[in-house]
Amino acid sequence: MQMRTRFIKGIPNMFTLGNLFCGFLSIGFAANAQYSNAAILILIGMMLDSMDGRLARMLKADSNLGKELDSLADVVTFGVAPSFLVYYTYFYQFGLLGLAIAGLFPLFGAYRLARFNVSPPNSSGKYFTGVPITAAGGIMALLTLFGNFIPQIVTTVIFTALCFLMVSRLKIPSFKEVPLPKYGTIVTLFLGCLLFIIYQGTYQQYPYLIYIAIPLYIAYLAYRFVKGKNKKEID
C-alpha cells in the first residue's frame, strides 16, 4: 500500500521530468538543424507542464519537491531550449554577440521564476506579474515553427520584448480570462501545429487530408469555445 501511494504521488513528477527531457531533446535537435522538431518538442513540453500541476492537485500529491522540480524543468525547456533554437535559426549570423543575446532569454526567465517562487500567491488568479516563462518559450517555439512566413526582424523584436516582459511588473491576463481553459488552450495550439506539420508532409501525396482535417479542427475550436463560454456563464 505504501509503495502504491508513493508511485501515485510520483506521477506528477514523471510528467515534469518528461517536460525537462523534451527541453533536452529540443536542444539536441536544434544543434542538428532539425528546427521544426525542436520547436514541437517545446510545445509538447508545454502540454506536460500544464498536466503535472493538474495531476498533482487531482492526486493530492502537491509537494515542495515537485514545485522546485517544475521550476528547474521550466528553465531548461522554456528558457534554454528556445534560446538555442533562436540562436541557431536567427542569431548565429552575429557570432558571439548573437550567442550572448540569445543567452539573455534563460537569464530573464530564471529571474522571473525565482521572483514568482518567493512572491505571495495571487489570490485572484486573474493575472500574472510579468509574462510566464512557459508562455514566452512557447511563443518563440511557434515563431520558429512558422519562421518561413515571418520576417526575422519580427522574431527579433518579439524575442527582445519577451525578455523584458518576463521581468516586468506588468499585469498579464491569465488563461482563466479566456473562454478556453488553460489545458484546452495548449492542446488547441498543439493540434494546430500538428495540423500544419501534416499539411507540409502529406499534401503532395494525400492532398485530400487537409480538406478533412481543417473542418474537424474548426469544429473542435468551436466546441471548446462554446463549452468554455457556457461554463463561465454557469459560474
UniProtKB/TrEMBL annotation:
Similarity annotation: Belongs to the CDP-alcohol phosphatidyltransferase class-I family.
UniProt name for this protein: CDP-diacylglycerol--serine O-phosphatidyltransferase
One Pfam family matching this protein: CDP-OH_P_transf
Annotated catalysed reactions: a CDP-1,2-diacyl-sn-glycerol + L-serine = a 1,2-diacyl-sn-glycero-3-phospho-L-serine + CMP + H(+)
Record keywords, A-Z: Lipid biosynthesis, Lipid metabolism, Membrane, Phospholipid biosynthesis, Phospholipid metabolism, Transferase, Transmembrane, Transmembrane helix
Membrane-spanning ranges: 90-113, 125-143, 149-168, 180-199, 205-223
Primary localisation category: membrane
Superkingdom per UniProt: Bacteria
Membrane topology field: Multi-pass membrane protein
Organism: Sutcliffiella tianshenii
Top-level EC class as recorded in UniProt: transferase
Any GO molecular function: CDP-diacylglycerol-serine O-phosphatidyltransferase activity
Subcellular location: Endomembrane system
Enzyme Commission (EC) number: 2.7.8.8
Matching PANTHER family: CDP-DIACYLGLYCEROL--GLYCEROL-3-PHOSPHATE 3-PHOSPHATIDYLTRANSFERASE-RELATED (PTHR14269), CDP-DIACYLGLYCEROL--SERINE O-PHOSPHATIDYLTRANSFERASE (PTHR14269:SF61)
